[in-house]
Amino acid sequence: MSITETDAKALGKVGVLFGGRSAEREISLISGNGVLQALKSKGIDAHAFDPAERSLAELAAEDFDRVFIALHGRYGEDGTLQGALELLGIPYTGSGVMASSVGMDKVTTKIVWLAAGVPTPRYVTIAAGANVDTDAIVAELGLPLIVKPPLEGSTIGITKVLDAAGLQAAVDLARQYDKVVLVEQFIQGREFSVPVLGSGPTARALPIVEIVAPEGNYDYQNKYFTDDTKYHCPAPLDAATTAAIQAHVVNAYRALGCDGWSRIDVLLRASDNAPFLLEVNTSPGMTTHSLVPMAARAEGTSYEDLCVDILRSASLKAGQVKKG
Q1: pLDDT by residue (tens digit) across 22-58?
Q2: 246-271 per-position pLDDT tens digit
Q3: For the chain, what percentages of helix, strand and coil (3-state, to nearest 5) are there?
Q4: I need a labelling partner for 308 at 20 to 30 A (CA). Which of 155, 169, 261, 271 fits?
Q5: Which entry of 22, 101, 290, 313 is annotated as an active-site residue?
Q6: Active site includes 31?
Q7: Class of CATH domain 102-119+188-306
Q8: Which pTM was predicted?
Q9: Cα–Cα separations (whole angstroms), residue 15 to 32, 35, 58, 63, 66
Q10: Check whether domain 5-93 has CATH 3.50.20.10, yes or no
């Protein structure tokens, strides 16, 4: 989709927010630089802004007409920045305060999804400072287990626990990132990710991406920095399974009140082809290895046009624009 000079001017002065203070800063820098160059290539008046290096007062002083959020993790994807932008009256890409904060917390996401009939792996939580009752957890969820910090992304702090003896060390690792620890039932099967664009009734799933990581280990290194992980898009699935997964994903997106764009990760259990939704990313990666651009390309949309489309969706969810 081409963009005219008039269209580019209508989008105004644009801030691309990336970097930030989260554990995912490194990836955000890559995402944000990609978005910035893409928007500039379309003639848009786009400028870099790193909230880790500049204050909210400086953000307000820049007088941006809208911003593209390319931050990942805490202080960018968790509702905190979204709340500040609402107060400043600056339209922004992606979900609002509530959906961002709920989506960032994998435990709260599960609670909402289960209430909406969205299939997700069974789980238990270990409260801050609580002892690990290994026998009770294994009896509830079986083995293997997945242990993760519920407020982190990019597979940071995650452990696959193969036996009961390894549970305590996995919890200790997760507690380096979060006080509460999430322990999930392990789903053996194929791994997928499904981007969603739009809002409410207009929300739609893009083509499904299948992820085939070395030895099934889609960790931080295999996710971003190697070419060993293989991706298939559209995923080689029959039409009925594709439609079922996409329907679950759109339902999950709407249940959380997501807006603009997101990406939802899914496992398809090998034993019966039952889908299980794992988590939502309300500010997905936009690197050369990222899945949203990959799915968009499968529909014939370039990286640059995808960035423009997402930017066009920037809005305020609670307030009114500061201009005037």
Answers
A1: 988 999 999 999 999 999 999 999 999 999 999 999 9
A2: 999 999 999 999 999 999 999 999 99
A3: 40, 20, 40
A4: 155
A5: 290
A6: no
A7: alpha beta
A8: 0.92
A9: 10, 11, 12, 9, 7
A10: no
